[in-house]
Amino acid sequence: SQQGEEDPQALSIQEGENATMNCSYKTSINNLQWYRQNSGRGLVHLILIRSNEREKHSGRLRVTLDTSKKSSSLLITASRAADTASYFCATAPGGSQGNLIFGKGTKLSVKP
Amino acid sequence: NAGVTQTPKFRVLKTGQSMTLLCAQDMNHEYMYWYRQDPGMGLRLIHYSVGEGTTAKGEVPDGYNVSRLKKQNFLLGLESAAPSQTSVYFCASRELIVDTQYFGPGTRLTVL
Questions:
Q1: Chain B contact for A30, CB < 8 A?
Q2: B4 touches chain A (CB under 8 A)
Q3: Are A38 and A30 in contact (CB under 8 A)?
Q4: How many A-B residue pairs are in contact by the CB < 8 A criterion?
Q5: Mean pLDDT across the stretch A4-13?
Q6: Per residue in A26-66, pLDDT tens?
Q7: CB-CB under 8 Å, B50 with A45
Q8: Are A74 and A23 contacting, i.e. CB atoms less than 8 angstroms apart?
Q9: pLDDT tens across B9-67, in order?
Q10: Residues 6+ apart with CB under 8 A from A98
Q11: What pLDDT score does A107 carry?
């Protein structure tokens, strides 16, 4: 089945640096969402970007969407140790009743 | 609000045993979902429900059954557990017109 693929699989940075994660997908979508998962916990919604939007901001998060390239990026600015988590993109394909298809995630480690 | 809760948090079964996982949400959400997450993988949809009394198959439904007798509860059953069903199971819910999903804390199931 169609699936978002995140890149890189793992990312290690120092506190204060920016972290960029990418997501590619295969078919047309209604929206794309990013979720965070702390170790051993459930997923928490971060941000949703609709197919007719190109960029969206929420606090230290910036998401871009390029539907022509079927790709999205998540930028976390001025990272903190508390940002250490796995980040997943999830796509809502057209006609899917809002069902999401998740990628395998990017594991982000922010070192103090 | 408790949000989405899952019972139990951990369970160990022997091959062939049966069990039911309970998901409850207090947000009056129409849609509910069951996912499984395996190491290094994103979430895969098992079954979902678009309202009380309805259920539908997701990407990996084999070996599982579900029921949604009450709007706030979504049950996932394993009739005859197999080692391949060792996983972490997540429940999620969402409103009718909002695509954001809210996740429970997960149930870690081991089948020996």
A1: yes
A2: yes
A3: no
A4: 54
A5: 89
A6: 988 999 999 999 998 999 999 999 999 999 999 999 999 99
A7: no
A8: yes
A9: 999 999 999 999 999 999 999 999 999 999 877 899 999 999 999 999 999 999 999 99
A10: A30, A92, B31, B94, B99
A11: 95
Please report, for chain A, the start and end positions of each structural domain, with discontinuous segments joined by +: 5-111
How many structural domains does chain B have?
1
pLDDT of A3 higher than 70: no
B3 touching chain A per CB within 8 A: no
d(CA B73, CA B7): 11
* Class for the domain spanning A5-111: mainly beta
Determine contact, residues A14/A99, Cβ cutoff 8 Å.
no
In a domain, B111, yes or no: no
Nearest chain B Cα to A92, which residue? B99
pLDDT tens figures, B79-107: 999 999 999 999 999 998 888 999 999 99
* Beta strand residue intervals within B29-104, DSSP E: 31-37, 43-49, 56-57, 65-67, 73-78, 87-94, 102-103
Distance from CA of B17 to the nearest CA of A (A): 25
